């Protein structure tokens, strides 16, 4: 009946693989979806960072640094013995403080009294001895401004990405629909002979017309 083309199997394997991917992911560090921020000079800013690891961690090493046009300037580094344990800060400049939560794998910091020179890239790095010293890092971009723009840029970005997301979704749905229609058409094509032979049987019986007024003339040649 329904013979599934081999491409479908491959597609399924791919989709299942994608679905399983997050579950087998090793140490990962993230500075959030936005990963950049505009902040007013003279204020304190939170530089966000979280990590995740599917198998947990022991003595996780973490480090925040600033990219001083090419060279790395360390801001804060330390270790976390295990989940929920207070971090052991090994080094920190007097302008930053640990602001995370080790119960939530949160290793954010606060940078005090920012100035224009603080604009740039901040790297959050982590290394997990339990995962054979696997490491990962993420970069957060800070832009220090003297005045916040009145127009809410984030809202524009949210709207733009929402619209983009919806359009993307529609495109994906359209492609999927095309693909499904194509697969169905292909399958139908293969089963055409069967369909034709079964529908070819004529079920109308002859001679069942009971009320035929014209019985007088039945010319038989
Ligand atoms: C921000 O920088 C401007 C220009 O250097 C300065 O006049 C202003 O006082 C600063 N604002 C704060 C809050 O430090
Ligand atoms: C590096 O940055 C400093 C300011 O932080 C600047 O004075 C210097 O010219 C920069 N060096 C290079 C090579 O761009
Ligand atoms: C991490 O901690 C900071 C400070 O407590 C908080 O503002 C931030 O939302 C937390 N991030 C996540 C992803 O929970």
Automatic annotation (TrEMBL):
Keyword entries, A-Z: Disulfide bond, Glycoprotein, Immunoglobulin domain, Membrane, Signal, Transmembrane, Transmembrane helix
Cellular-component GO terms for this entry: voltage-gated sodium channel complex
Chain intervals for the UniProt region annotation (Disordered): 200-221
TM spans (from-to): 155-176
Biased composition (Polar residues): 200-209
Record protein name field: Sodium channel, voltage-gated, type IV, beta b
Top-level taxon in the UniProt lineage: Eukaryota
InterPro entries from the UniProt entry: Ig-like_dom (IPR007110), Ig-like_dom_sf (IPR036179), Ig-like_fold (IPR013783), Ig_sub (IPR003599), Ig_V-set (IPR013106), Myelin_P0-rel (IPR000920)
Subcellular compartments: Membrane
SMART domains from the UniProt entry: IG
PANTHER family tied to this protein: MYELIN P0 RELATED, SODIUM CHANNEL SUBUNIT BETA-4
Any single GO BP term: regulation of ventricular cardiac muscle cell membrane repolarization
MF annotations from Gene Ontology: sodium channel regulator activity; transmembrane transporter binding
Domain annotation Ig-like: ranges: 22-141
Signal peptide: 1-26
Membrane topology: Single-pass type I membrane protein
């Amino acid at each position: 009946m329904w013979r599934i083309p081999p491409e479908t199997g491959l597609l399924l394997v791919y989709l299942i693989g994608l679905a399983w991917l997050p579950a087998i992911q090793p140490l990962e560090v993230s500075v959030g979806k936005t990963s950049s921020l505009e902040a007013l000079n003279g204020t304190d800013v939170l530089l966000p960072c979280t990590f995740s690891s599917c198998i947990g961690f022991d003595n996780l090493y973490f480090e925040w640094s600033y990219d001083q046009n090419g060279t790395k300037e360390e801001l804060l580094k330390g270790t976390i013995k295990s989940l929920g344990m207070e971090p052991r800060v090994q080094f920190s400049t007097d302008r930053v403080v640990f602001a995370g939560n080790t119960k939530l794998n949160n290793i954010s910091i606060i940078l005090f009294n920012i100035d224009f020179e603080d604009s740039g890239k901040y790297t959050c790095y982590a290394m997990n001895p339990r995962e054979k010293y696997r490491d990962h890092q993420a970069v957060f971009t800070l832009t220090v401004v003297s005045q916040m723009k009145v127009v809410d840029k984030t809202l524009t970005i949210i709207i733009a990405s929402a619209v983009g997301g919806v359009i993307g979704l529609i495109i994906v749905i359209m492609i999927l629909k095309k693909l499904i229609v194509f697969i169905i058409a292909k399958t139908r094509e293969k089963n055409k002979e069967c369909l034709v032979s079964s529908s070819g049987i004529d079920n109308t019986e002859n001679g069942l017309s009971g009320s035929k007024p014209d019985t007088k003339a039945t010319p038989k040649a």
